[in-house]
């Protein structure tokens, strides 16, 4: 707190030029930092999105290539069980004659070559029986006994004639070749497709033949080396030059088929997020693994159901943004230098007139009121200097006129006192006239004088902007009595106001101008039958009063001019203005009239809470 207080004191006591330079630099720095941060975030998001799309496309393309290959092999394998030549070869083999087996091996190898020989990615192809492994054994040899005791055979039986792909497995462990353990050989780890062959044959007479029921069905075995699946990912790793990129292919049971870490291949150490990936099928997401945020793109293969993925750290994907940060810092430094220079020049331009004004004020303190500052420009500072010169030129005159001004103030006070005596003098004069009329037996004139005196007394005693409605109606009744004496037997006036409103504070004399207008303008030409009705009630949102007459009304064009304020009506305008000042713009006066249809004035007031205070109804 002490450091903050000291900093604030230094800032408050610093010169204006220093404040201007510092504030300008802080503002520019803040703007640059905000823009740099926003640009960095947008660039990072776009770059991450591009990398994500790139990884997704690589995984998708790799899977499509594998799917095309494997689906093509699957389609060919579907034709193999109905191959007539294969059926005849299998049925004609004498299992006790080795020469017969060798001949059959040559023919079956040729048949397999016809189906799969054009695919160089297939490492080996065999048709296996319990007695013999038919196929090209130049690359590898599959022991029949070991095969028919392996999981490969059991999976071919379980799939009942459908080709099933078996993920990475050890050749030595799967076929029981324990003597091959510890050696390194080309087909140490394989991926194989196996299919039980229910061979059939239709002879020339159209007779359908099938393998004997007690004969064990031969099994087609097609093998790939793991490098075939891995090389597609390895090519991308080599081209991308990403140091920490990892990839892999995992089956639905969590077995790792291939992986960038060779030690994981053939194990069940699948990534922790693989289950979520299988639920989604394809896509990308970000995961925190070992404290590092990583971007993962994945896609499930159609042919095998295996999941391929590529995983890279997010910081590697955003590595190109390091140069952006470097250039941003350089840009910030350059902008700060330019900002300081511009702020210094700007401060000189702004503070120079202020310094001149400061010097002029000091000269005024010494009594020199004839000092003038050179005027330059028409901006705010130029205007300030002109106003200072004008003020300085007038101060001397004001000082000289000060004594005379005070004398005039005293005279004004005396005049105000005299004016306050005038209403009292007028009231006394009306009272004298009232008694003269009584002594001369002029009853009507005496009542008029009395009402007028009481009206004057009521008006002059109350100096507030408002008074109770009961007072206003009493004053109005006296006014109506006086006007009725002038228009005898012509006007009938009726007042219908809710009693609960009598204590309500209302604007002084707010009804009188409208009653006067009704009498003078609406009913003046009547010889009899004139009517004025005054009503007041409490509405849900305001207090309403109406003054309604059956007079000559107002033509439509004049009514529109009245509403627009084009026709001068001092009384109505005064009431309208006072109501809006007291209650707000939503309150006021509305005129409803038509030619020869009478006039209806609607006055809308707010609910008063007390003297001088109003509340709107919401």
TrEMBL record:
CDD domains: HAMP, PDC2_HK_sensor. Its main location: membrane. One of its GO terms (cellular component) is plasma membrane. The chain crosses the membrane at residues 21-40, 326-350. It is found in: Cell membrane. GO terms for molecular function: phosphorelay sensor kinase activity. Its EC number is 2.7.13.3. It is a multi-pass membrane protein. InterPro entries: Bact_2-comp_sensor_kinase (IPR050640), HAMP_dom (IPR003660), HATPase_C_sf (IPR036890), HATPase_dom (IPR003594), Sig_transdc_His_kin_internal (IPR010559). Residues 348-400 form the HAMP domain. Keywords: Cell membrane, Kinase, Membrane, Phosphoprotein, Transferase, Transmembrane, Transmembrane helix. PANTHER family: SENSOR HISTIDINE KINASE YPDA. This is Two-component system sensor histidine kinase YesM. It comes from Paenibacillus phyllosphaerae.
